[in-house]
Amino acid sequence: MRARDLLTPYPTVTLDTPVAEAARLLATQNLRGLIVVDGDGKPLSILPGTQVLRLAVPGYCQDDPALARVVDEIHADAFLRTLAGRTVREALPREKRELPVTDPDATVLEVAALMARTHSPLVAVVGERGLEGAVTLQALMERALAA
């Protein structure tokens, strides 16, 4: 079995997409991450939903989880509103990481190894015509367990 056999169409965002829009995509389509592309549709990065949360959750709550408990309920429920006016570019990790991208001929084990190595819930699949879609962790696990 190859990556092309597990391929699914997948939504993309750009570096300039409002991060609130990315968060909405993640929530409404029940996604674990998004593919970030350049102007030509070439994958630049994978934006895991956890990175969107990292941008929205105050740093002091990330550094000391006990502080998150002292924030009152009204303010705690409003933390995602802090995303207004921010872009996907700001949500991406600053340090350069391996890009989880493969070709349609990659084996299931190659895709699984790439996911594990990059800690990514999805792998972008790029063929001769550009981005063809993605292999998700769910699709990979379902197929592997069925075999």
Automatic annotation (TrEMBL):
Protein origin, superkingdom: Bacteria
Domain CBS: start-end pairs: 6-65
Keywords on record: CBS domain
Coiled-coil region: none
SUPFAM superfamilies linked to this entry: CBS-domain pair (SSF54631)
PROSITE patterns found in the cross-reference section: CBS (PS51371)
Protein name: CBS domain-containing protein
Species assigned in the record: Nonomuraea glycinis
